[in-house]
Design a protein that fits this description.
alpha+beta; 4-stranded mixed β-sheet; two-stranded antiparallel sheet; 5 helices; 6 strands
Length: 178
């Protein structure tokens, strides 16, 4: 669930920076636009496990959107903005592992990464937290924290943020004198 400030930053990047990157060959994908936009996802809603979200997590309509792999746009973003050790915040409503699959080369340059992990899936075919954590480890990221994002009416944890550090970056930090 993306806060308004993060959503505004994402819209700024998409509207002002992306067109200047000279990136071509965008792929099109269908996104389920939910009644509450923070629930919009490339995945279909699954409301049987957390029914109190169903009034928000219902598809209002489907839109076709342009998507691009991070590996394809990262070098241009890095050149344009000039960052050296970026922190990657993902919040794609159940699609974060797909984003990571399109970022395998870029991930070596990412110092830290934050992604949501699902305990109770609110989308069909959404990976669970164990798969998410296993994939993060396989990509070379170690957990530094886990923070509740959403709970249901029974106080069961629905999803949490995984905050991670790039293992190679962490080892370099550990070698530095204190």
């Amino acid at each position: 669930m993306m806060p308004r400030t993060a959503r505004k930053i994402a819209q700024l990047v998409i509207s002002r920076i992306m067109p200047q990157l000279n990136v071509r060959d965008w792929d099109l994908a269908s996104i389920n636009v939910a009644k509450a936009d923070e629930f919009s996802s490339f995945l279909e809603p699954e409301n049987s496990k957390v029914p109190e979200f169903s009034h928000l997590n219902n598809t209002d309509h489907v839109e076709s959107v342009e998507v691009r792999r991070l590996d394809d746009i990262f070098p241009a973003l890095q050149e344009r903005i000039g960052f050296r050790r970026p922190y990657l915040k993902l919040d794609t409503q159940g699609y974060d592992l797909e984003v990571l699959r399109g970022s395998v080369h870029t991930l070596r340059s990412i110092a830290g990464l934050q992604t949501e992990a699902s305990v109770i899936g609110i989308y069909r075919q959404m990976p669970d937290f164990m798969e998410t954590i296993a994939q993060l480890k396989a990509y070379g990221f170690d957990l530094t924290g886990m923070y509740a994002v959403a709970r249901d009416a029974s106080l069961r944890l629905v999803e949490f943020d995984c905050v991670t550090i790039n293992r190679e970056y962490a080892l370099k930090l550990a070698e530095r004198p204190v």
